[in-house]
Amino acid sequence: MKTQFVGAFLAVWANLALTQAFYSPKDDVLNLTPQNFGPAILDTDQLVAVEFYAPWCGHCQKLAPEWKKAATNLKGLVSLAAVDCDVEANKGICAMYEIKGFPTIKLFSPELRKNKKTGELTKVPTDYQGPRDAKSIVDSLLSSQPSNVQFVKWNEKDVKSKKSISLENFLENETLPKALLFTNKPSTTPLYKALSVDFKNRMAVGEVKQSEKNIVAEYGVESFPTLIVISPTEGTVKFEGKLNRDSLKKFMEKYALPPTDKNAKTGKSSPPPPAPKKEVKKKVVQAIEDDTMMASHCLNAPGNTVCVIAITGDEDKQDTLDTLSILKDTEKKSEGIDLQYGWIHADQASDITNTLQLSQDYPSIFIIHPSKQLYKNYVGSWSEKNLQQWLAQVSSGRINAWGYQGDLKINEKPAPVEAEEEIEEEVAHKNEPVRDEL
Ligand SMILES: *[C@@H]1O[C@H](CO)[C@@H](O)[C@H](O)[C@H]1NC(C)=O
């Protein structure tokens, strides 16, 4: 009698367990509800990846441990969240984002876009289509990680991308505290990108490469990495502590402007944002993905054509394409020259940047006059006005361009990473380095 009772009890308990949410508070995955959805998604400037799932779905059960692993690995860099679409209260959110299958992963970038109908500011997510193992998820999210890091240059003439700035301009606003990282790494680390976003509008965050000898000398920097802050009240202060996220954040917090009330934007208990209507955007700017496209879109164009080409990584892609569309729309037509617009992914541009000796900082813009074998990169601050002026000069033939030799080849797309157990393990054990490397 007694054993039977225990058996029945266990069976019921197991059934309940099957419908339980996948993620508990001790995981690094945030469980989303109608109450916290607005603040978690809208009131952050970091990238947020949201998994929409149903506990009974087999693919979701397979994804859960990978999602947790990726969340732990990316803690403090990118937020990973989940919505259980089986929970009655969450059904509104899942309907709003037109979730049709489980799991669906959507990425919310920081850019706010105006809903055309309501005029409200909202975030329009994109779908994550990549493999669903922890390593692929981590790699893909890091490649889309937002950054406000500015590359600080001594010479005005080295300011060649949207992200670069002369030291003079970087220091110009005397009331704004600044952080400067002196580094010998070729690219910005995820940790520094995350810090630049954490302190958005409260501190200018810059990076100085070791090769910027004049700036290195100016600040007496002798080893890399070195982080300093330049405070309006305390002067220049060098960071001496342990190079990890927590102590760096504490240090920067001490000198940054006080935080503004973020909740004013949406309100803590605001309902989820209005449904993002799928906008059918005209594809005005051509992606150049291989040599054939490069030939048909630019190199084989008629003699009076000048190609205007942007190079961008994932992180700035939408922004860059928006800028190009605006340039295209506002272009002043000239008699002589026809402008063709295109863009190349930074992963596929290394041959071209080598041949033309372009900057490795992205996004950047250059022009090619294929029939005359001339090119010129854009140098200057990345405002629509300045870019428009430059293009006006280009189309009236009033700029000096340089000759180039050789082919302008598009590199092959990097192969998608195979999901292998071994590599995943490595990622799982690499938590600290990814997060704490400056
Ligand atoms: C300097 O930065 C502060 C803080 O971001 C800002 O409020 C102020 O308008 C800036 N001043 C100038 C001259 O840009």
From TrEMBL:
Pfam families: Thioredox_PDIA6_C (PF24541), Thioredoxin (PF00085). GO terms for molecular function: protein disulfide isomerase activity; protein-disulfide reductase activity. Residues 1-147 form the Thioredoxin domain. It is found in: Endoplasmic reticulum lumen. Residues 1-21 form the signal peptide. SUPFAM superfamilies: Thioredoxin-like. The keyword Signal applies. Residues 258-280, 415-438 are annotated as: Disordered. One of its GO terms (cellular component) is endoplasmic reticulum lumen. Keywords: Disulfide bond, Isomerase, Redox-active center, Signal. It is an enzyme of class 5 (isomerase). Residues 426-438 have a biased composition (Basic and acidic residues). It catalyses: Catalyzes the rearrangement of -S-S- bonds in proteins. GO terms for biological process: response to endoplasmic reticulum stress. Gene3D superfamilies: Glutaredoxin (3.40.30.10). Its EC number is 5.3.4.1. This is protein disulfide-isomerase. It comes from Mucor saturninus.
